[in-house]
Each structure stands twice: as C-alpha cells, then as structure tokens.
Amino acid sequence: MTETKIDKSNWPRGEWDNEPDILEFTYSGYKCQILRMSDTGHLNGYVGITKTHPFFNKGQSNQIVMELSIESLLAVHGGITFADNTISKDKNIWWFGFDCAHYGDFCPGMEANLHTSPGAKTSWHRPENYRNIEYVKKEVESLAKQLKAFEEEKVAGLTKSALQIESLKKKSKVGKLIEKYNKITEKTRDILLKIREKNTKSTTPRLKSGACTC
Fold first, then answer.
1. Which of 28, 42, 121, 190 is deepest in the core (most CB within 10 A)?
2. Rounded to whole angstroms, how far apart are CA atoms 21 and 143?
3. Domain boundaries in the chain?
C-alpha cells in the first residue's frame, strides 16, 4: 500500500505527529494493517484471514451457531466494526477490523475541526485518551491471536460438525437430522465459547470505551 501523507498542520500537536499513518506487519501468520483516518486522525486496526478460516467472507454480525455472532466471539477495542475484502488489492484476504473513534477516544483531526466551530464542545477534549500506534498494534496482535485460535480449532470442531450435517442431509433422514443437528450445534457452540474464554484470559485488559461508534 502506498502511503499518502496526511496533512496534520491544523491539528493540535501531539504524539500522532511522529507516528506513521500506515503500518503493515505479519502476526500469527496473518497480514495486519494499521491505518490512520485522514479526516478524524484516529487509527484503525485490521487483521486479514484467508479461505482456510471458518470466518472467511462473513460479516461481524453473522451468527456462527446458536446466536453466537463473530463480533461476540472477538474481544478488541470498541468491538469489531469492519468485515470486508476492500483493504487490499488481494480479494482473497478477508479483513476484520476495529476503530479508535468511539465515545471517549481522542481524535486529533476531529478536535481540529471542532475548534473551527465557535462554542463547539465534545467529550473528546482529552489528548490522554488518544489510542496511539503502540496501543493499536497490541490490539491488532491480540485480534490476530484470537482469530488464529478459531482457525486452529476449525478442523477438529467446526468443519467436522458441518460435514456431519451434510452427510445426514444426503441420507434424507429428516428426524435424525434435526436431532443430530441440535447435538452438533450445541457441541460447536461449546467449542466456540471455550475458545472465547481462553482468548479472554490470554489477552491484556483493554481500556474502557463507550459502545457507540462515532
């Protein structure tokens, strides 16, 4: 990705002046990116997965099984707010991302714009709440580790469950299919919850942030 220099001349001075606007790296075998938004100045973090991952080509709100959505299984700053293949030219990479422009997050570009409006007030007037490149990189790495845990479990759990269901469908055993499906989905749900619990224990406590995306 070619970096386009963001004009920060009208922003308040801060550590963002000395940070890169784009950072690309690999973690847990996944391509990772951190991108700065030119209008607000905040950073977004992304992790790219391939077709071998059970979450590939799925939106963050997609339910995997029994009301468990992808966003409910992944813990990251502000929650997963992006799922698409538009981050890079390679459309075989599916990106999950998060942003640092939630309620309480300091956005230097937004701060500059608000200062141009007389009397404008916002809860973002706290530079100490800026989520810097170091913080965002740790969150990206945490997200990559969580995604890796679900991919490694795929062969043992999720794929096996799906194959069992397809096998029953082909045999047209409807009654047994429903019974078997319920057992399989419950088992798969337990697997997902165990991975989420393990991921939660292994990740560092994150800063509190409001639920709304701004």
1. 42
2. 20
3. 15-148
